[in-house]
């Protein structure tokens, strides 16, 4: 049995694409999971996936519209998904997201202040 690193490029790309499609299906099957909850727990959401698709296309010189990427990720126009599936964020969710973002901006607890300073 091969390790992932031993796979040829085409097979590896096919497996990565299949896993991505499965992730999108899983998110589609779980529309009750809100984007803000994904951001709080995993620091990404459906919108991030859309942006990553656009970015990957740009890196390859293939223009991709954000609306088209969102429709692919959401399985419908974004405005429709928002109207039918996105709830209002609660104060608790907003506070949790703010706390997560603050933790990202803070230096790691494993780093000493000198590790953050430029070396001479």
Automatic annotation (TrEMBL):
Residues 107-120 have a biased composition (Polar residues). Residues 33-98 form the SMc04008-like domain. It holds the Pfam family DUF1244. Signal peptide: none annotated. Coiled coil: none annotated. InterPro entries: SMc04008-like_domain, SMc04008-like_sf. Residues 84-120 are annotated as: Disordered. This is SMc04008-like domain-containing protein. It comes from Vreelandella hamiltonii.
